[in-house]
Amino acid sequence: MIKRKIATFLLCASLLGTNLSFSSTAFASSVNSNVTYTQNDTLTKADEANIKESINEVLSFKYEILKTGKSKNYSDIIKNPKLLELINAKSKLDVEWFKKFDGKTDEYISNVNIINSSKTAFKTYVINVNYNVEFKIKGTDVTSKSGEKYRFEVKCENGKWYITKMLNLNETNESKNNQLKQEVFLDIDNNFSDYEDKIDLELKNINDNYENMDENYNNFIQSTPNNNNSENRLVGRSYANFNYNAKAAVSYAQKYGKDPNPNYVYSRDSRGKGVDCTNFVSQCVLAGGIPASSYWYAYSNSWVRVIDFWSYMTSNGYGSTVEGVRGDGTQGARAGDVVQFANNLYWSHSVILSGTILGGQWVYCGHSDERLDYPLYIAYDDGGYKRLRTLKFWH
């Protein structure tokens, strides 16, 4: 027995000594061939670079369409058939939607930064990333910027990294998928709850939007600016006793649209997920001169909630709520006004108009995604929205 213990000790010591020449990936075999990984089992710099390149290529699909007018085949990067079907369906929708606005870009600049990662199986990782992109629509001097968050599952096969799952962690994605219980937040251990259901619902929404594209387009084109809007803006004017400083509101929006103001707490839900859209819009209109009150102040319900914000502003006479000829729209809006988006069920997202391009297309600033002078028509399509309305302030 003593000899056996000594032999075992010597064998362990030998293995520990030789382990210095191994990589940080360590594993132990058992009878059922399960694999156990150490906490130091991390991606190499080369692996990270390859993964980021693949993720960047997939997340840039709509900007490739904006540049080339054509969709790409991502089957050499995406291994999951249902995810590939979703990307192909969204690309098909974007190609036709972008044609309606004649918006193109000569080039875009994008990059991916890994927030954190966790190994979940052999050569399989879950990764949270930030995706940043900037571009100019042809014929304009306006630089549009966007910052977005995503979760991926990636797997290495035969020395090549493939994407097997993808989840949008942005506020707009949760808004349109509210039928499902959402478990999306940056805790890497949460991974992909209800993933197949989310993908199926997303695919259904995309296909529905493709089938109803003309109707959605007719709802959207009310966003064309109209300077002859005095009649529309007369409703409720007697209740307003101030002039809104739209220039100051837009200036604030453009300063903090892409990089949030550190003097404000970034709004998150109970799971830690960013839901900062109306918090940011409230900051902007406060900068535009709308006074805080005992009902509307930083982080109050009317400050951070989409519908409560609308109700407070309209009930206190700070702007017009006249609907467009085909329903809620942005006809007669001006820079500094607030636009809200809705899916089939309810109003779910707020942004602030910051200007126009190409003789009439709106750009906006907003949070969750962080966006600066971003084309409204791209966001409307990207979020899968059905309607929009505008709070037209008196200015």
UniProtKB/TrEMBL annotation:
<feature type="signal peptide">
    <location>
        <begin position="1"/>
        <end position="28"/>
    </location>
</feature>
<dbReference type="InterPro" id="IPR024301">
    <property type="entry name" value="Amidase_6"/>
</dbReference>
<keyword id="KW-0732">Signal</keyword>
<protein>
    <recommendedName>
        <fullName>Putative amidase domain-containing protein</fullName>
    </recommendedName>
</protein>
<keyword id="KW-0175">Coiled coil</keyword>
<dbReference type="Pfam" id="PF12671">
    <property type="entry name" value="Amidase_6"/>
</dbReference>
<feature type="domain" description="Putative amidase">
    <location>
        <begin position="243"/>
        <end position="379"/>
    </location>
</feature>
<feature type="coiled-coil region">
    <location>
        <begin position="163"/>
        <end position="223"/>
    </location>
</feature>
